[in-house]
């Protein structure tokens, strides 16, 4: 046995023995028949074990699940999780009190990220409490929107818990809705791979995690545009026909970020059989799992992952790890179906030179521009921020966002297609004075489950 100094270790009993089958455990020297220390197992020991809880309470945004389990002092297993991903600032959230409230703590998602939650469609996931926090310190687990202080659903944590310590021994396999067994990673990459695809407009970052390729696209795109990246249809030059790409964008109607698997059989709009088509429209499936999305100051960041090798030989190309491979990228408008429309061929919105990537790289960082200093230089200037001062009655109405000079350029965030007008002013700053009474006449929606409406 090697030397240990304040080390946590896990021992598995041999030959199928259980803890109830033994009377003692010792550190024993067989050569000199010396007992270095022992612990006796009391008869009738009640061994700590996972605890099964009810499902999430169903309050908003389609949140639901099967019965949630506490696997150990820090780990929750959430099977069959459904959530529409439409909350603008939603997270797994834990805290104390009789109901979920703003005095909570964010819990990283199943891949260890603190990005706002994506949508889930019947997935089985595990999440772990951050820092020194344990299940003994909290009263509830919820999905909570920080911006709107809105509880989408929660489950209470019993006080009579007796679960195993969190030493990593309870990690289990989780599944997606396609029953593909995956192992979720909780560590962040030590190295960064980044390549500039379109100068000043689109970068790609990547890393390989087990049998998956994790990709993050960072683009200077408008809200109604997409960014696409994938494997060229021919090695040695950029070719759209035969290419396998992912189209990533913000869906304004569903109010969520999306990443869709595409195959290009011809240079035309998809007709359901041929063209630039989502795999799902031509008999395949979307093998891409979106992980996170964000938009700030005109820059959109979307992270997704895909198996290095899927089971769709026709529509999907394998990502090789033994050589460089030619890739293509583009930026263009979305059509009325929220699908990729034709882009320009000027070289500023599509790769015209051969770009090759070795996806097995550990620290291939050639990006020169982080893209996040963008302020709509090529378009009209945003309208100046407006203010309301000294008015005691304020009427709030829902109206349009103001296009390229309105909500998104002013705030740096994607709009949901609607914006508040206060006294007929687009999203003004309202100044109020302590001790005064103000009347708000709100002419908006009354669906409490959909704050955006």
UniProtKB/TrEMBL annotation:
The keyword Transmembrane does not apply. Keywords: Repeat. It comes from the Eukaryota. Residues 200-332 form the DOMON domain. Pfam families: DM13, DOMON. Residues 1-42, 54-158 form the DM13 domain. This is Protein Skeletor.
């Amino acid at each position: 046995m090697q030397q240990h100094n304040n080390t946590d270790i896990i021992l598995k009993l041999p030959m199928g023995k259980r803890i109830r089958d033994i009377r003692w455990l010792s550190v024993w020297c067989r050569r000199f028949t010396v007992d270095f220390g022992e612990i006796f197992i009391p008869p009738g020991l009640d061994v700590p074990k996972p605890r099964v809880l009810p499902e999430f309470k169903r309050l908003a945004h389609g949140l639901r699940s099967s019965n949630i389990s506490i696997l150990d002092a820090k780990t929750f297993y959430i099977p069959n999780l459904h959530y529409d991903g439409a909350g603008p600032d939603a997270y797994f959230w834990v805290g104390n009190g009789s109901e979920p409230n703003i005095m909570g703590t964010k819990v990283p998602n199943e891949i260890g990220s603190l990005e706002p939650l994506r949508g889930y469609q019947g997935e089985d996931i595990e999440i772990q409490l951050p820092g020194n926090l344990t299940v003994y310190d909290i009263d509830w687990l919820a999905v909570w929107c920080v911006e709107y202080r809105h509880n989408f659903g929660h489950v209470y944590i019993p006080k009579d818990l007796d679960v195993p310590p969190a030493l990593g021994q309870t990690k289990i396999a989780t599944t997606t809705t396609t029953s593909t067994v995956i192992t979720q990673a909780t560590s962040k990459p030590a190295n960064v791979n980044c390549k500039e695809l379109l100068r000043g407009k689109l970068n790609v970052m990547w890393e390989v995690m087990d049998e998956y390729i994790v990709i993050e696209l960072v683009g200077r795109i408008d809200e109604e545009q997409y960014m696409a990246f994938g494997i060229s249809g021919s090695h040695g030059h950029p070719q759209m026909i035969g290419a396998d790409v992912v189209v990533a964008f913000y869906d304004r109607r569903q109010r969520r970020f999306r990443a869709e698997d595409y195959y290009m059989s011809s240079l035309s709009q998809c007709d359901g059989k041929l063209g630039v088509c989502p795999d799902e429209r031509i008999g395949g499936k979307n093998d891409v799992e979106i992980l996170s999305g964000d938009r700030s100051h005109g820059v959109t960041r979307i992270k997704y992952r895909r198996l290095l090798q899927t089971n769709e030989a026709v529509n999907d190309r394998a990502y090789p790890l033994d050589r460089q491979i030619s890739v293509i990228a583009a930026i263009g408008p979305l059509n009325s179906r929220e699908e990729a429309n034709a882009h320009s061929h000027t070289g500023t919105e599509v790769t015209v030179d051969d770009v090759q990537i070795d996806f097995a790289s550990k620290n291939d960082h050639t990006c020169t521009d982080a893209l996040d200093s963008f302020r709509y230089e090529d378009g009209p200037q945003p309208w100046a921020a407006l203010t309301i001062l000294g008015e005691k009655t304020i009427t709030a109405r829902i109206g349009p966002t103001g296009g390229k000079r309105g909500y998104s350029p002013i705030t740096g965030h994607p709009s949901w297609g609607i914006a508040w007008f206060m006294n007929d002013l687009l999203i003004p700053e309202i100044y109020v004075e302590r001790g005064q009474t103000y009347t708000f006449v709100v002419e908006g929606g009354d669906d409490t489950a959909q704050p955006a409406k």
